[in-house]
Amino acid sequence: MPSAETAYLFRHALLRDAAYELQLPGDRAKLHELAFHLIEQAFGGRAPEPPPLDAIDPLDFEPYPTDVVAFELAEHVRQALAGNPEHELTALQKLYLRRTAEHAEREFRTGEACTAWESLAALLDGASKGEAQRRSGVLHAQGGQLRRAEAAFQSALSAHREVADRRGEGIVLRGLAIVYSRTGRTEQAERTVTQALAIHREVADRRSEGIALGNLAIVYQETGRAEQTERTYGQALAIHREVGDRRGEGIALGNLASVYRETGRPEQAERAYEQALAIHREVGNRRSEGIALGSLAVVYQETGRVEQAEHTHGQALAIHREVGNRHFEGIALGNLAIVYQSTGWVEQAGHKYEQALAIHREVGDRHFEGLALCDYAVLKVTTAQTQEARELFLQGTAILRELGAKAELERRTAAMRESCAKAGIEPLDAQA
Fold first, then answer.
1. Closest Cα to residue 341, out of 305, 313, 392, 383?
2. pLDDT means over runs of 10, the chain (432 residues)
3. CATH 1.20.1640.10 for domain 245-321+329-338
């Protein structure tokens, strides 16, 4: 039985809805317009007009008191515009949908931001429409929703091509290349980012050229081309410094550090990660701060500082969860599993591997699914679960081979051989 208070609230809601529905559509629209003006005034007045969405050098988002009610304001305008899309309030609906999206991004509320960008895109056309769709795609990709990201990027690409916006087309192609790379379409990723790079050079967009070079280096790194990887990251870093892009500089430094680590230069890697981390904190790039912390933790791990590694992986994991970065949350869990495995915490390691694999599969990250399967297989060998180890290892190596991840495949195969030798069993890779 409902309590008296619950029953009262229920009846009150019914009365409210009934009273609302009794209003004529025109009167309801006027009430929503009045509510919009009253709320806007109560929270500090009209938010400033932002620069165009497709501006070449957009300003950073500047918070405003109405941001906390931006969605409500946009919704009241939508209701006020019912049946009258040519009303002068249309511009205010666009203004507050954009502020809703940018405020939600700032607060790491990815789902809300994506919805707002998509709603805004429906009201726009041309390059601005494409940029709103691209922003939605970026957030979907960061949150691990790669299918949605790809759909958003494809829509954005069409919008930019319709108006012959070459600059916007190049930027969207970069985003598509990242999705292709993370879903195992390495050749398609390389072709697409190469197209983007050519466009950036054609339109003399030096900053975007630096970003595209970094993306191309990632493809080289994933396919074992170490020399090209280091050279291309170095070119990207030089451009970021040339144009004063501190955010890009921090990301490029972190990427270069990963090359140093993978090629046996741990001290150089540690210095570069620390420099990257300092820049991310300076510019407030929380997402990249989490990534750099996780990478630094791997260096600690590989140089025998296990407690420091565990602590730093934990810091990285907390940030990934805070900003909704499911992709790197899965990576951090896999790295924690390796730490637990090295210290004999077998049960905890297995649990972390299972969590990591679930996330990699959820977000469609084939590359890290393959790595985690191989690492989990090594754990199974150490606990004499040979058949399970074989199945996991065959699955993992098949994925890495399919993706052309030669360097990673060699490292995982060597680790498996070492583990089998210690366990006194035949190398599982003989059948891989």
1. 383
2. 43 50 64 89 90 77 89 89 71 93 86 93 94 94 85 97 96 94 89 97 95 94 90 96 95 95 94 97 94 95 93 95 89 94 91 94 85 93 90 92 82 90 80 47
3. no
Comparing CA positions, the residue from 104, 127, 1, 114 lying closest to residue 53 is 127
Judge if 145-243 and 245-321+329-338 fold alike in CATH terms.
Answer: yes
> What CATH class is the domain 145-243?
mainly alpha
The two structure tokens encoding residue 57: 């050098």
Classified as helix, coil or strand, 325 is: coil
Structural domain boundaries in the chain: 15-48+68-123, 145-243, 245-321+329-338, 371-432
DSSP 136-157: HHHHHHHTT-HHHHHHHHHHHH
Answer yes or no: are the C-beta atoms of 154 and 177 closer than 8 Å.
no
For residue 423, how far is the Cα from the chain centroid? 39
List the alpha helices (DSSP H) in 223-325. 226-243, 246-262, 266-283, 286-302, 306-323
> pTM of this prediction?
0.74
